[in-house]
Amino acid sequence: MPKRILQGTVVSDTNEKTVVVSVERRFTHPILKKTVRRSKKYHAHDEANAAKVGDLVQIEECAPISKNKRWTVVTSA
């Protein structure tokens, strides 16, 4: 099964080798038929500490690295 890749914005880079990425998804509400925005934060491993707050990054699924980290930064766009 292929690994999922998500795109989002870095909202925190204070931790060592970790960034918090906010990923937004849009969908049509089943009853209201209106576009709804939902966001979720993911902790991602950033080995080089390259990503900074506000950067657009892609994250990829990986094996668990710590209690919260299950994603790794692929590219910093």
TrEMBL record:
Stored InterPro entries: NA-bd_OB-fold, Ribosomal_uS17, Ribosomal_uS17_bact/chlr
Gene3D superfamilies: Nucleic acid-binding proteins
Gene Ontology BP annotations: translation
Primary role: One of the primary rRNA binding proteins, it binds specifically to the 5'-end of 16S ribosomal RNA.
Family indicated by similarity: Belongs to the universal ribosomal protein uS17 family.
PANTHER family listed in its UniProt record: 40S RIBOSOMAL PROTEIN S11 FAMILY MEMBER, SMALL RIBOSOMAL SUBUNIT PROTEIN US17M
Complex formation: Part of the 30S ribosomal subunit.
Name of protein: Small ribosomal subunit protein uS17
The organism of origin for this protein: Pelagibacterium luteolum
Species lineage: Bacteria, Pseudomonadati, Pseudomonadota, Alphaproteobacteria, Hyphomicrobiales
